[in-house]
Design brief:
Blueprint (H helix, E strand, L loop, with lengths): L1 H11 L4 H25 L6 H22 L5 H25 L4 H25 L12 H11 L11 H18 L6 H27 L3
Length: 216
């Protein structure tokens, strides 16, 4: 918690109390949910550095929430923190394989942090880029897909690994980083964002089709 407060101060200069409380609350909620899942579905004796790194990524995402609400957030500070978060995303999976602590829990924990990270960046893009509310299409698909599972339970089935899905996710985050940077108003960035939205729709459509064809 002190780390969140300190880094939030560096990011926003003078974060308001509500923003700081919300950022800390999101971290605590995410951490508690992860602990609950850890107790019921983690097969290894040690937590592993991989899940520690994912927890750090959750903390960085929570700090970005503080900057999202506080008006004095520096665009370059946001970009730097987001880039660190993205780089660490490649580290946790590598550590899990190196340590032999690969698990469904770790994969789900990583996915949920990725989804929250993308949503927060898309909210930044709504504020700063010409795309406006259309930028939400770069952060909401995962949550729309999750919400649809309540009406269509077959959507909660396990999906096979697919390289194109990972490629689209990397493209999604890269475009979001460009949108929240000072270069977000460039026409080429706007075009890349629109293409990323279409790629996300295509990728989720493939998953829905696969789950429909393999529903119980």
């Amino acid at each position: 918690m002190p780390a969140i407060a300190l880094l939030s101060w560096l990011l926003t200069i003078h974060p308001n109390g509500f923003a700081a409380a919300l950022g800390c609350g999101i971290f605590v909620l995410g951490f508690c949910l992860a602990l609950m899942a850890l107790r019921t579905s983690y097969p290894h004796a040690t937590l592993g550095y991989c899940n520690t790194v994912t927890t750090v990524r959750l903390m960085l995402t929570s700090i970005l929430v503080v900057g999202l609400i506080s008006p004095m957030a520096s665009p370059w500070s946001v970009v730097i923190l987001a880039c660190i978060n993205l780089l660490l995303d490649g580290v946790d999976g590598w550590l899990a394989r190196a340590e032999g602590t690969v698990s469904k829990f770790g994969a789900r924990f990583d996915l949920e942090v990725d989804s929250l990270f993308a949503l927060v960046l898309s909210l930044y893009a709504v504020q700063s880029s010409p795309l406006g509310l259309f930028a939400l299409f770069l952060g909401l698909p995962r949550y729309l897909f999750w919400s649809a599972q309540f009406a269509f339970p077959w959507l909660s089935g396990a999906l096979p690994e697919r390289f194109s899905r990972k490629l689209v996710c990397v493209w999604q985050i890269a475009v979001l980083l460009l949108l929240v940077s000072p270069y977000g108003h460039e026409p080429v960035v706007q075009l890349a964002a629109i293409m990323a939205i279409l790629a996300l729709i295509w990728s989720f459509a493939l998953d829905v089709r696969w789950l429909w064809c393999h529903r119980p």
